[in-house]
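Raw record, unedited: BAR domain-containing protein
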Amino acid sequence: MGGATTKDPEFAELERNFNDLKNMSERLNGDAKRYRDAMNAMLNHQASFANHLNGVYDPLLGESYLGDGAVKRREQPDYSENMKAVQHFEQIMQEVRDAISPEVEQIDRRVVQPTEEFQQILKGVEKLITKHHHKLVDYDRHRNALEKLQNKKDRSISDEKSMYKTEGLLATATEEYEYYNNLLKHDLPYLFHYKSQFIEPIFETFYFMQSRIFSLLLQRMDALVQSGFFKTMDRPTVEAFEQIREETQVKETLEDLELLKSKGYLRPSAAAGYSRTGATPSPPASPTVSTSGVKHTAYAPSHASSTSPTDSLPPYTPGSGKSSVSRAPPPVAHKPTPLSQPAATYCVALYDYDAQAEGDLSFRKDDKIEIIERTADENDWWTGKLHGRQGVFPGNYVAILQ
């Protein structure tokens, strides 16, 4: 506008205090919501974690279905102590959930809702402050316009009329500005006083509710620690982890697995024409560990193969057709005679299998695969179809559906 503006240090200080109060209530409300959501997520995660641990030690993971109701059980370590620890952990976590959930629900009623109600009050006050600013702008505009006319040396009749009109506008603007200015200066200190009687008790309530939740959590977790299932609780986490890893030699054992060394096959060279010999890859649940220091090759070239008939896989060569999906192995003299299959025979995948060479059929555990061709030997390569794709896969990765 180019004129002077009114400065009111007293009101400016009150406005700063009001903004601080508004920001504090917003932070308290936001923190309470985030804490509530985080506690609910933690309780849900603990319950889910217990279920995952149950799955890890589930003895049924060591079984495979052979058809006709027969079940083949693979030898597994004794996880009875681990299962007891998991069951105890699951029980404690359920107790934690039952004890803490009601406390978490109280955060909404005793912290979130009151702060939201207080924020609605502050929004009404904020509208009054905005009106105060608008009236101050009108007041300064009319005051500057009147001063400009009054300072004019040679005023015309038109200037006199404008000055008279501006005096009326200034009087109205002054009255309205002083109304909002005096109202806010009078009432804002009361609002700040009631803040200590409203917001601070909510803040204290929130603090004590957190303390109670952590106390309940500590009591239940201490009972879990004292159960005796966890032998390294008296040591730092990293130190205990390193000790367990050294005792079990998990890393060394995994690195020694032929399945992880070669992924269960040797990729055929271009000169070999993609022919494949050797045993089918071992299922993930029963990998072979090399302990003799001599590397056992899962697959060898066909001209040097010396494996026994029960461990060898008949070679297959892709056809000369254009299709790269259907790769059923052609009949070979030493290949076992395929069994005649009834229409639409299916099997279910016991493990995940990723294609190791062109013509393989990839699938995931529990996929239902249509069998196109198979032999009597489950350690052989079978031909199947899944999601419109046809290819070969290891027979010991699936179970026939009766």
